Structures
1.
Amino acid sequence: MPGEQPVWVSPPGITVSYLFYQGRNSTQVQAARYTGGQPIITTTGEVAQCTSSGVLTIPREHLWLHKEIPEINLEFSRKSWLIAPLRHFFSGIYVRSMRSGESLGYKPLYETDHPGSVRYYSVNHNLASLCQETDKCAHKEKYDALMARAPGHAVVLYGVSRGAGATFSATDKADLCILEGPPSSLRRIFKFYFTKILGKLLYNKITAYLFLGGKHSTDKAQQPIGHVDTFPNNVPLVIVSSKRDWIVPHESSIRLALRVAAKRIAAREEAIARGVPRETADRYIAPVYFIQLDRPGHNGYTKRGTRDAERYQNAIHAIYRAHGLSHVPAYADLGAEEMHLANLTDPNDVTKVKQMQYQREFWEHRPLESEQSRALRRRDLRATAAAELANEPRSRIRDIFLASPLHSKPLPWLFSWFSFARRRTQAETGDGISHVAPKSDSIVVAIPIAQGKPAMHEQITSSLQSPAADSVEVFCP
């Protein structure tokens, strides 16, 4: 990352504000991870600076924090005196008081005279809902306060982890929505960790109250993915997720992105069928971007000096520029190709359009058919889609879709490493495709990325003749 702060460029007459919503057990100071290492002034008049982040995706002059969310208690206590500094230390954030006469060279958009201290804070568990009602209300309050302060500004909504789920659920209108590591459903995260049956049993009102917040509801409609139909089609959506995120599984984030993308492609096709010109439909149906990172864990997306952090930053600036928002031109140039690959709703990309059609067909028929019919449809869709992806030269696109719910049904976290090792061994022993007969009722089709066989479709199709198989697991080593 450059040592000096780059210059942001704004289109004429456009001023952009960035509403930030933090992750679980964090305060507003988490926003310091996205200002390129520059210190920010908090709403309590303190200084926060991240020493481990090199990502510049929010200019601090236009950052909007407003006051702390209700579950964060800024009053000093014995508990906060010990725990809060430790949280800041492990997140790489340094918080201190503003020195007398000190100036950081900018004036925040928000008030900085709120009582309390973000340096010593505690979390009121009874007021937490984790992406649900209390977070939605707090997000709306922040948004309304921003509109009152800067009514003519373009607005970028920026949510991280819990804040990403809350932002998605609460969004009504914005010029861009960026979600880092969003959970599609807390219910599915439990299933990811503890198997489908055990996860369903463990995700109940008691465990939700004890571990997720006193206001958390186990109702499916309250999960972030339950708001897909209400999320506006004209708001460009960016979802960032890492393949090695073990807090919010990669499969959870990509499920959310694909559901929104499939909905928007269907809306575009419906509009065109009604006689709306294609150019008009493309203009009013905003794109969905999915930026897939390779190595960072849940808290390492912005870690300084990593290739993933650079890809993240550059792609965001390319997206800013594409939608007429403030950006750093040098970063936007570097991220242009990443932005193109990340666009799941590009109408000119045949591979993506077909994949989204497969995803939508799977979801639309899933509740209407019998278990046997659903298994057969899933098998056929997987085989057809996998055959097309096997010959897809863009490995990033292949990686994104092969991690989707249509293709992969990951084993619980406790068993995932054993599954990965077993399948890699199987893939290395075969030439082109390894046909494996595991003990379960599924067939594993391992597709070595380095080998793109012309007859891939025929090979996969021929491997599905076993009448006992009702699903196909696709794995790219």
2.
Amino acid sequence: MTDKNSNLYNAFFGLNSDPLAGNDPWNIFSPLSAEKPSRLLSLASLIPDPPPPVPDENVTNFYSLASLLGKPEENPPNRLAALAGLYPPVTAPRPLPSVYPPVAPRPVARPKFAHASPPQSGSVAWVQSVVSGLLKKKAEVNNGRVLPEIEDLAPMEGRRVRAAFVYSDLHGFTKLVSTQLTNTSFLFLHSFVYVTNLLTKHYGGQVMDCAGDRVLSVFHRPPSDLSNEPVEDAITFALWLQTVFTRAIAPAFTSAGFAGLSLGIGVDYGEAVVGCVGIRNDKRIVFFGDAANKAAKLQEVAGPGETMLSFGAVSRRPAYLNGETWKPQGELQNGEYVQRISQVFAADVAPKAR
């Protein structure tokens, strides 16, 4: 106990000598005398003053918080924090407006057609609306490692490939169809397409289209493959198809009473896109690119028994065409150098492309 507190204790219980009270320790509880009030005041001077009252601002803060946090007795920590001045003063919330501003109505979508109702199916306005919608779509074209089948592509989807295109067409078949029974023409056309498909697969190609008596065979590679192999396969296939047609197919047709048929072939090479057009249940495979178009045009100018090679195909031709046996004839077609071959293989076995 400190000296100050000890003195206060002793003075309160009269343990210290006091000239006013003598040596009686309980003199402080005896009837008051004239000197004892002075003594009590002297003792009271030793007690510190009480703390100042809480400022009104803290009380305001507390009640402002209490109105938001609930009853004060239910939130003692919040009350103490409010009284301690830890929370800033809370302003009263703004009153809600009695009348809300008007909300603009949502815009109504305009009809696609100028008419009150959709145009009649098949009309000009109907076709305009269909074409307008289709032109807003976007085709999806990716690199292709293999030639896709019709089932592999959705409408407006395509694959980019490097390929050699071979169009083979029967000369004189239109006249045969006009003079023979339908069943007979059907059998001859089926025989030609069937053999063409077998030989196309033999040289690693794929028949992609058959329009009447004209067949499209495609020999492809991925876009990154710049080798001459697809051209070598395509040219060898074309010359061997001419060979078997001259030695086997045409004689069989002649013996059946249908003479005068021959074969014209066009070959070109380049990058193209294999695309799908149409609708879900009626799709078609088409080729976009100069190579397919040039091959078709070369086939049209090919004479009976002739194979036409574009400049792109000539520059990648098989090595055996460089010998003295083959004598292709060079010429210009639409400003481009091409070669015309009228010869066939002498052997009876399918030759190798390289």
